DNA sequence: TCGGTTCAGAGTATT
DNA sequence: TCTGAACCGA
């Protein structure tokens, strides 16, 4: 026991050794949150305060669950298998498998991932002849998931207009379809187990009595339904130990409800609130930046990080002229670090949106620096893997129409759209699955469809007695997938992935051990899940999409969005694109609490860095095919000057003497044509929101061409001479709106107007004859 | 049924 | 600008 708690700081120790009561642990970034969670569990068990079976620990990601399990196994000789540690979805799956009858599900129900769900919705809408222009399937999907995450069934939703009536009808029809086909989507896993526990009193009491300690990680990310689920599981004798950080709540767009933290405190009568504020990750300058920034948020529970690590280096800021030059600078800086002996994998390049990675990748690729981009397709999401899984799913559950349609003609068997339509009609008439309806069709189409059904039946028989990896191997071979990809030009990689699927099955079996093969018990058999290894593997494949295929093992630079970086840490971090509109993102500004969430996102980004933090921005950026002039991000202005080190002049380049002499190392780069700087009246080809300037070539050429040689340029120069002393990209000050960047100039003389991006004040058109503008120098 | 063309849209993401 | 999805012709 001493060994467990000896190395904890006073707050950590307090949290770990709390009495058997509800508790809220406010765990700042880098404050040892996972250590507290796992040590709490180990401490409870070692002191005989709970048996492993009495512990329920919930996380959001499989990665977090795995990490918790790994750390626990290192702390305790116990087999942690008896504990319920997993993701919300994983645990719900376990619950529903164990009580599938009570939950009105077939034992072999399949789990739809987001893509499967969308396909199911499209298919449904087609069968109901619903206009998918007026009701885009994605929107319907969002509606359904949103409702489920609020804990609402179709019947619970109030109908306010015809449009929403359609959505509600689709929701009901979708649920019927899923029920018929024996499939559940992600949100359904949660909702269905909630309903199961809500309706079944003995079952609920059983689990409430069993789980005397419920621990939740990343509590600030819980959605409404997850919170309700926890409330239902927590019985009169359960203690809920919720760990979270309101300052790191960045997932509202996916349903996370920060309000759950306050609700938890209130509804559970939480008396134990522990703040973990000592940070073990970052140096002082970095932490002070984070603290100061987040203080600008008004709705906080309140927390201040501190460290014993010392000040470290100041935070470096670099302002580039263009996005490519920003990338160029990053490249040089990274090279420098590598020459100093830094490992590439200790350096992360963060950005707000995925689109920003392209420019960075281009620079890194050209320079031959290995990098790894997070996000993207993951193993179980790859088309060939999903095809193989569809065969396996059909073998488990022939009613799975989504899987049926996916592979009925893949590889091609001469079953065309018309045959499928006939089959769908027949199935609808008979109220049966597509698989069963194959028997009713006659003619050539019927024969082919029946042959497919027989193929599935045959695969099922042939593999009945085989161990899981051989089942997968057999299906991959006999389904014709391998042969198909052999004839495809770029099929080799796909074949390798199919082989890898066999390995994944073997690995899964080895890890899972005997768990899946235990016999069923009567009554409230909650630990014993009667699942074939195949069914368990299919659940696993749906619930854990696997890694993306990035090359593991090589020492590579880490590229990712700020969101993906949450929970990670690096010695060196570059936060790029710190511009108004990008970070904070313009879409978020309209949203309620959107700006505060962006600020939390910035806070998350800053607190990823251990030793060295770089912030970078660019004056122009190519976005949606237009050159865009952005203001510096307000978040930069919110950082304390004494912790910063500007690598470029603080005021940046937005001056009268663009590209002029004496501007340090970047005077000659990119916009070396400063000579024309005295003015270029861009007539601006307005499009959309008008936030962009330049219509491709005219804007672009102006930037590169220093002299007025072309007729167009001469005209532009003439226009300037007639008295429009401004140019696009220039920073100006306005008495009421503050600083802004000129986006476009229209007209001349008395009619001249300028469009200015005033950042938080918005984008405005001002008449030059009226508005009083000053150059910012 | 494939392959080219056209068009819209372009924010963050786990299960 | 660039991408993915939808669509049409052979």
Task: Tag the structure with descriptive keywords.
single chain, eight-stranded mixed sheet, alpha/beta, 777 residues, six-stranded parallel sheet, 21 strands, DNA-binding
Task: Describe the protein.
The protein is built from 30 helices and 21 strands. The strands form four sheets. Strands 9, 10, 11, 12, 13, 14, 15 and 16 form an eight-stranded mixed β-sheet that branches. It has a six-stranded parallel β-sheet with strand order 3-2-6-7-1-8, sandwiched between helices. The protein has a five-stranded antiparallel β-sheet with strand order 20-19-18-17-21, with no helix packed on it. α2 crosses α3 (33-46) and α9 runs parallel beside α11. The model is unreliable at 514-525 and 652-722 (pLDDT under 50). With 777 residues, the protein is α/β, with parallel strands linked by helices. It binds a DNA duplex (15 and 10 nucleotides) through residues 60-62, 87-90, 111, 113-114, 185-187, 189-190, 221, 250-251, 253-254, 352-355, 358, 375, 412, 416, 542-545, 561-564, 585-588, 597, 601, 622-626, 696.
Question: Could you outline the blueprint of secondary structure elements for this entry?
Answer:
Blueprint: H1 2-5, H2 10-16, E1 23-27, H3 33-46, E2 55-59, H4 62-75, E3 84-87, H5 88-98, E4 110-112, H6 114-127, H7 137-149, H8 162-181, E5 183-185, H9 186-199, H10 201-210, E6 213-216, H11 224-233, E7 239-244, H12 259-267, E8 272-276, H13 284-294, E9 315-322, H14 323-339, E10 347-351, H15 357-367, E11 371-373, H16 383-396, H17 401-407, H18 417-430, H19 434-437, H20 443-463, H21 468-478, H22 481-486, H23 491-512, H24 533-543, E12 557-561, H25 562-565, E13 570-575, H26 586-590, H27 594-606, E14 609-623, E15 626-629, H28 634-637, E16 644-646, H29 697-704, H30 711-721, E17 731-734, E18 738-746, E19 753-757, E20 763-767, E21 773-775
Helix pairs in contact: 2-3, 3-4, 5-9, 6-7, 6-8, 9-11, 13-27, 14-15, 16-17, 16-20, 16-24, 21-23
The chain binds a DNA duplex (15 and 10 nucleotides) through residues 60-62, 87-90, 111, 113-114, 185-187, 189-190, 221, 250-251, 253-254, 352-355, 358, 375, 412, 416, 542-545, 561-564, 585-588, 597, 601, 622-626, 696.
